[in-house]
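INFO batch 0412 | record 1 of 1 | parsing
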Amino acid sequence: MVEHELTNLNTARLIVRRFEDRDAEAFWRLRNDPDVARHQGWPFPYSDSEAASFVEVMARAPVVVNGEWFQFVIEHASDAVLIGDIGVRADSLTGEEVEIGYSLDPAYQGHGLMAEALTALIAYLFRVQRKKRLVAMTHAINEKSCRLLERLHFTLEGTLGNIDPNDPEAERVYALESQNFVPERRP
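INFO prediction complete | emitting tokens
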């Protein structure tokens, strides 16, 4: 694993950064949005003390440690509002493969913001952290997430659980190899 201290990843509209103590309330609201939580594995409802504790740990945690999850904040740059997060976990053996997961406030969906945030983070993971492969799992019924991953050149590798695409428990597994990464170009 390559150790690097995280600096903010700035895009045209976003800042992808580590958590800060000031993020606890906005993070708590995001975790308690039923439209966000339905495709995630965290406890629902999510208590304010869980959110504060999580933010405190992530604010001080090392970035991308093998076998451990690390969450990044997605902040809207124009108003400094936390609008989502991206979690990453490098595999515990070599650290070359990283699983990613993400969530975005529904009010900000449909504007290409998650693609923008993920593109910045993917570039960081491949170019700075020198990761070789990314894996993402999404519920098969979460068509927006599936389309997003495909737009970012992730390849569908298979389905876990029931292969019925309407089964809310079935998950699609996508992967992106570093040599297939194509940064999105937005006007």
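INFO post-check: Residues 9-132 form a domain with the Aminopeptidase fold (CATH 3.40.630.30).
INFO record closed
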